[in-house]
Amino acid sequence: MHVTRGFTGRPRVPNSGLPPGQYDAGDDWPVLSAEVTPELAPADWTFTVDGLVAEPRTWSWDEAHALPASAYEGDIHCVTSWSKFGVRFGGVSLDAFLDLVRPAPQATHAVAYSHTGYTANLPLADLTGGRAWIVWEYGDEPLPAEHGGPARLLVPHLYFWKSAKWIAGLRLLDHDEPGFWEQNGYHHRGNPWEEQRYSGD
Amino acid sequence: MTGTFTPPTRFAVPGRIAVDNDTATTWQRATLTEIRRETPRAATFRFAVPGWRGHVPGQHVMLRLTAEDGYTAQRHYSIASPPDDVGHIELTLDHVEGGEVSGWFHAVAEPGDQVEVRGPNSGFFAWTGDRPALLVGAGSGVVPLMSMVRHHRARSLSVPLRLLVSARGPEELIYASEYGSETTPVFTRSAPPGVPVGRLSAAQVAALVADAPDGGWEAYVCGSNGFAEHASRLLVEAGQPVDRIRIERFG
To answer: Which residues contact A168 (CB under 8 A, 6 or more apart)?
Structure first.
């Protein structure tokens, strides 16, 4: 740690809810995707859960919407150091999908993949217990395409690169397999409260 | 454990370049040695980083400033300098209104000041100089692309390289004096006499995509999200394969 001459920074807010090293993006919601935003209509969107499960399954847009609605209200955190407070996403809890495919006992991890080919790895424990969603609404509006619409994964307790946009599926595995950013030097888990940004943090 | 799971998808994410995880996680002291004004809003900050183990053009660093009470602010910034500038890196920063970090750089920083950096990070947007590159940037989005242009020049590479760079006007065109025949500037608000004013057009992008060398271009797009969406759509419409477009957006 080296004190920077003349740097004071923004006023500190005690117990602000910001994880270490993050700042409040306010009304901004930066877009950070590495690929071309796909033109993916709801009618063409599907979500598959397979791998180490008893009954692999693919849901259409309408079939996914027939599952019990569930919303997330809270904060999100991006590894590039912005956080956003008090956002609301609407969709379905991932538990509702997993309950139907019945993960095998040996399933410990998942690779989330998108309709663009993006991948992110997650421990199964981070996807269950009401901590992850498939979402298609932001506020009361459809999720914009540049933010992953028609539907994205939402895992708000981890850095946002885990919340794969344009989600296409989850493959359950008995091992951890690094995804796109994890192969590019980012941390395998990405807990913002422990500042797990890069591999080795 | 065998192989890597490759998802069955219509689209494809472009390939990647391995990064050094050790350098990505170690904070290093960087000493500011020079400040060069580029435009009224942007300046280049040159740092000596004695232990710097090099980078690939297009990569970025995480930069950290620390206040006396231990408060820190960190930001990602693209590297503007080429890899052969051994022991040094240059960053070009816009002065963002109310910017906590850019404000310090533009109002307080002077040669001799020290900050901390770690990196380089992300092999995704990197270009090693091995494939024809079509670079499309706007505003300070030209910064990582300039590292590529400088690398191309410093090594006298023969691989084709083209740069489309958009700025509001000539006075806001970063690195204006360095561009050569590889560059087409695009001015959106005001332009020198005889140069059209307007947004990056489908015709400009199509002409370059049509002029692709054997094996095609790797396209690198960097700028605001609005620009990145516009430019990447034009590239796709012009026939550039979607899995050969890499995008770096900043909010």
So the answer is: A46, A47, A48, A113, A114, A115, B7, B9
Q: Is B100 within 8 Å of A9 (Cβ atoms)?
A: yes
**Structure tokens belonging to residue B200:** 């990056």
Report the sign of the C-alpha dihedral through residues B174, B176, B181, B184, in that order. positive
Torsions phi, psi for B248 (to 5 deg)? -120, 115
CB contact under 8 A, A33 and B247: yes
- Lookup result for tokens 């499309």: B136
Beta carbons of A113 and A171 less than 8 angstroms apart: yes
Read off φ and ψ for residue A93, nearest 5 degrees. Answer: -60, 140
Provide the whole-model pTM. Answer: 0.92
Cis peptide before A142 (omega within 30 of 0): no
Distance CA A185, CA A197 (A): 9
Selecting from A5, A117, A146 the residue whose C-beta is nearest the C-beta of B113 gives A5
Nearest CA in chain B to A6: B108
Q: Which residues contact B240 (CB under 8 A, 6 or more apart)?
A: B134, B209, B216, B217, B219
Which chain A residues are within 8 Å of B225, Cβ to Cβ? 30-31, 146
| Interface pTM, i.e. ipTM | 0.88
pLDDT in tens, B82-137: 999 999 999 999 999 889 999 999 999 999 999 999 999 877 899 999 999 999 99
SS3 state of residue A60? strand
* Residue found by looking up tokens 């990447």 in the block: B232
Q: Tell me whether residues A35 and B13 touch, CB distance under 8 A.
A: yes
The confidence band for A51, taking pLDDT boundaries of 50, 70 and 90, is very high
Any bridge partners for residue B10, and if so which?
A: none
Query: How far apart (Å, rounded) are the C-alpha atoms in residues A136 and A90?
Result: 6
Given a contact cutoff of 8 angstroms between Cβ atoms, the answer to whether A133 and A72 are in contact is yes
Tell me how long chain A is: 201
Cα-based angle A184, A185, A189 (whole degrees, multiple of 5): 110
**Cα torsion angle, A36, A42, A44, A50, sign:** positive
Q: Which residue has the tokens 């360095």?
A: B178
